[in-house]
């Protein structure tokens, strides 16, 4: 069991990583909570509803959400809020997000705005949500034309991460989450990166202790970064390594070809190539990053994507400020630099060479 604390100006809370933590949820639910509303999907509830009920040990209202990006919308939040109100939810209620990143984003946002804000406890059940979405307080929903455009910062009261629930996660989803963990290694933790390079077989075999260790390391990094920089300042930006081009690739393919982590893996390959091309990253490190990412593939193809269309999308990204595209580029394994003054020709070349 590993507990990592997030401390921001607005909140301080534990992220607890441990096998079987699902059986101990009650310890993290404030006794004074008048009602508990669990936002989840039918598939997750079918698999883990009994364990959840056993762990919480008190009456709760289960609110089902259909899941899927297309349903991560304001209308779903409104529907859930109506259900909360109908069930007598008041300001002393709490919301628990129990599912993948879509559920934790939506439940977090519901909690942020229900009666101007009630506490949320996050219990993420995909690797991506465990190492990324559930920590950090970013919550929100999609607009028809663009992802995560409406939202709020609402820090949870705790994040409970049970690696045992990952046994039912499809392998492709698991690997997509692993790419976010590799990202953490490249941006801040050479030892974590080394585990991916040397313990490949054990990771492929889903060795539970190793997976728990990887999650704890990634959560520690996210917690450190968020604690130092709650909003999207320069430090928090380092978490966007691989996301500049990754987001463009997701959008370019209508969010249907890649899982988020897979697009990030392509994005990291592009950023690594770019860093190497402009002389910021030595060949040996660039090759190692590339090799490690490729060991956790295969990634869905990208050869047919047009680099120029991707570049056009880069400048319309939500994270683009004053028209300047920011890239997070590695300068060594474990260190990155945020740059916004790259030559467009280098960017194009790095993308074209990587995707070919
Ligand atoms: N807030 C943030 O900082 C942040 C960061 C990264 C991603 N996100 C968001 O996260 C979302 C993606 O999350 P995701 O990748 O978890 O996808 P997801 O929530 O769609 O979950 C993937 C699928 O796995 C199922 N599932 C969940 N847990 C399972 C389990 N234990 N066993 C079997 N199946 C299970 C889900 O029902 C779903 O069908 C995106 O909407 C993205 O915007 C948010
Ligand atoms: Zn991501």
Short characterization:
This protein is α/β, with parallel strands linked by helices. The chain is 47% helix and 15% strand. The structure holds nicotinamide-adenine-dinucleotide and zinc ion.
List keywords for this structure.
seven-stranded mixed sheet, 15% strand, 47% helix, Rossmann fold, 2 domains, Dehydroquinate synthase-like, alpha domain, alpha/beta, 14 helices, binds nicotinamide-adenine-dinucleotide, two-stranded antiparallel ribbon, 356 residues, binds zinc ion
What does this protein look like?
The protein is of the alpha/beta class. It has 2 domains: 2-167, Rossmann fold, CATH 3.40.50.1970; 171-355, Dehydroquinate synthase-like - alpha domain (Dehydroquinate synthase-like, alpha domain). Helix content is 47%, strand content 15%. It contains 14 helices and 11 strands. It has a 7-stranded mixed beta sheet. Helix 4 (127-133) packs parallel to helix 5 (171-188), helix 5 crosses helix 6 (190-198) and helix 5 packs parallel to helix 11 (260-277). The longest helix is centred in the middle third of the chain and has 21 residues, at 208-228. The chain is globular and about 60 Å long. The termini are far apart. The mean pLDDT is 94.
């Amino acid at each position: 069991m590993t507990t990592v604390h997030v401390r921001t100006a607005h909140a301080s809370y534990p992220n607890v990583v441990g096998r079987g933590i699902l059986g101990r949820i009650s310890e993290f639910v404030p006794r004074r909570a008048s009602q508990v509303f669990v936002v989840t999907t039918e598939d997750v509830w079918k698999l883990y509803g009994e364990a959840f009920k056993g762990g919480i040990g008190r009456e709760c209202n289960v609110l089902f959400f259909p899941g899927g990006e297309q349903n991560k919308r304001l209308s779903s939040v409104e529907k859930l809020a109506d259900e909360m109100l109908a069930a007598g939810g008041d300001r002393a209620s709490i919301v628990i997000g129990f599912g993948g990143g879509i559920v934790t984003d939506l439940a977090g946002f519901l909690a942020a705005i229900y009666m101007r804000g009630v506490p949320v406890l996050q219990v993420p059940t995909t690797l991506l949500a465990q190492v990324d979405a559930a920590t950090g307080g970013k919550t929100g929903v999609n607009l028809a034309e663009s992802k995560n455009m409406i939202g709020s910062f609402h820090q949870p009261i705790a994040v409970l991460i049970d690696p045992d629930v990952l046994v039912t996660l499809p392998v492709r989803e698991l690997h997509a989450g692993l790419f976010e963990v590799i990202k953490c290694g490249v941006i801040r933790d050479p030892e974590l990166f080394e585990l991916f390079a040397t313990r490949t077989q054990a990771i492929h075999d889903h060795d539970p202790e190793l997976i728990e260790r990887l999650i704890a390391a990634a959560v520690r990094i996210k917690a450190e970064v968020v604690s130092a920089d709650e909003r999207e300042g320069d430090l928090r930006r380092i978490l966007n390594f691989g996301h500049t081009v990754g987001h463009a690739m997701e959008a370019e393919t209508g969010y249907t070809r890649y899982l988020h982590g897979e697009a990030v893996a392509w994005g990291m390959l592009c950023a690594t190539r770019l860093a190497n091309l402009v002389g910021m990253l030595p060949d040996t490190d660039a090759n190692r990053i590339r090799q490690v990412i490729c060991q956790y593939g295969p990634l869905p193809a990208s050869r047919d994507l047009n680099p120029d269309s991707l570049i056009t999308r880069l400048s319309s990204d939500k994270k683009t400020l004053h028209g300047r595209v920011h890239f997070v580029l590695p300068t060594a394994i474990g260190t990155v630099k945020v740059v916004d003054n790259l030559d467009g020709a280098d960017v194009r070349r790095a993308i074209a060479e990587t995707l070919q």
